[in-house]
């Protein structure tokens, strides 16, 4: 099609998760509750790391950044989904749709890289403990964290670059509750073979490379700790279980969805909800409940807050 002879659609229609109004009322309450838990839980981790000097180490700096990414990952589409449960039709402007595509790949790409960085941090801490302070100094930690954001932004811009140039003249129905690039590309009024290949190469390279680096890191760590004492093995095992669980929860749905990227299966919606809502909620639970330092710091933060509240109350009574 000659791109000069088409009228671009002004908005897209989102099919959402259900057509039943009764179910949508339930989902409205349910996802509101989950979203509040995600935001409060992850912000609590960030506040705890900031307020406790003992946690100003690379591992916890990265964990706080993971929590920030999880908040953003849950926010780019979830509030819109919650709003749409009580409104019809479920529409989103063309610009809003492209913004969702951009933000999804920024935060998802950034989290992939950050998980690799966290695995590298654990590799150095467990396999080279005597050199950890030198290798993972503050400057290097900051550079790795900033680098994860930069790579996420660059990855997203590369995805958006060829998407914005496509002609969208109709149809405009997206078979999900948010604008997923794999679904939006199919709506273009032209042959999308080349954009689909470019998207697969870009996202595939990002995801596969990150996943392979994670597998290599954890394999090396497991092989190394086998020759250490039982106490070291227990501590390393506890740390790795948390990291591997998060990696599985994050990459599992992505791998399934992008294994058949341009086929829309009903289970894709479930996996999309899991990756954008459930995973950001589970991450703080996994990392905090299995971490004595975080639980101790949260207890101190709670005690400090209660003490400050009591002092303020006493002063106001006087």
What does this structure look like?
The protein is mostly helical and about 325 residues long. It has one domain (about 10-315): Up-down Bundle (Rhopdopsin 7-helix transmembrane proteins). It is built from 11 helices and 3 strands, in the order E-H-H-H-E-H-H-H-E-H-H-H-H-H. The chain has helices at about 20-50, 60-75, 80-85, 95-125, 130-135, 140-165, 180-185, 195-225, 230-260, 265-290, 290-315; strands spanning about 10-15, 90-95, 175. It has a 3-stranded mixed sheet. Helix 1 (about 20-50) runs antiparallel to helix 2 (about 60-75) and helix 2 (about 60-75) packs antiparallel against helix 10 (about 265-290). The longest helix is centred in the middle third of the chain and has 34 residues, at about 95-125. The mean pLDDT is about 80.
Beta percentage is under 5%
DSSP helix count? 11
What separation lies between the terminal Cα atoms?
78 Å
Low-confidence stretches: none
> What is the helix/strand order?
EHHHEHHHEHHHHH
- Radius of gyration, in Å, reads 22 Å
The helix fraction, in percent, is: over 70%
**Mean of residue pLDDT values:** 82
CATH architectural group: Up-down Bundle
């Amino acid at each position: 099609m000659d791109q000069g002879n088409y009228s671009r659609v002004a908005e897209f229609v989102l099919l959402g998760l259900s057509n039943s109004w009764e179910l949508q009322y339930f989902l409205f309450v349910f996802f509101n509750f989950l979203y509040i838990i995600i935001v409060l839980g992850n912000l609590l981790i960030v506040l705890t790391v900031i307020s406790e000097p003992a946690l100003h180490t690379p591992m916890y700096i990265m964990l706080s950044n993971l929590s920030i990414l999880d908040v953003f990952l849950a926010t780019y589409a979830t509030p819109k989904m919650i709003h749409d449960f009580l409104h019809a039709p479920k529409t989103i402007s063309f610009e809003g749709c492209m913004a969702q595509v951009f933000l999804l790949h920024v935060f998802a790409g950034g989290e992939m890289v950050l998980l690799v960085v966290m695995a590298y941090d654990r590799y150095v801490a467990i396999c080279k403990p005597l050199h950890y302070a030198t290798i993972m100094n503050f400057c290097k930690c900051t550079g790795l964290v900033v680098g994860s954001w930069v790579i996420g932004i660059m990855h997203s811009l590369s995805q958006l670059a060829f998407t914005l140039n496509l002609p969208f003249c109709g149809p405009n129905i997206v078979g999900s509750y948010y604008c997923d690039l794999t679904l939006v590309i199919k709506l273009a009024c032209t042959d999308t073979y080349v954009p689909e290949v470019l998207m697969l190469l870009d996202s595939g390279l990002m995801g596969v490379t990150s996943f392979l680096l994670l597998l290599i890191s954890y394999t090396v760590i497991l092989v190394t700790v086998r020759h250490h004492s039982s106490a070291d093995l227990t501590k390393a095992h506890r740390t790795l279980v948390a990291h591997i669980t998060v990696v599985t929860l994050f990459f599992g749905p992505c791998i399934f969805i992008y294994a058949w990227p341009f086929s829309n299966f009903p289970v894709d919606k479930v996996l999309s909800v899991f990756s954008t809502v459930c995973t950001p909620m589970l991450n703080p639970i996994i990392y905090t409940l299995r971490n004595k330092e975080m639980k101790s710091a949260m207890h101190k933060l709670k005690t400090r807050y209660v003490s400050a509240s009591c002092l303020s109350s006493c002063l106001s009574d006087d």
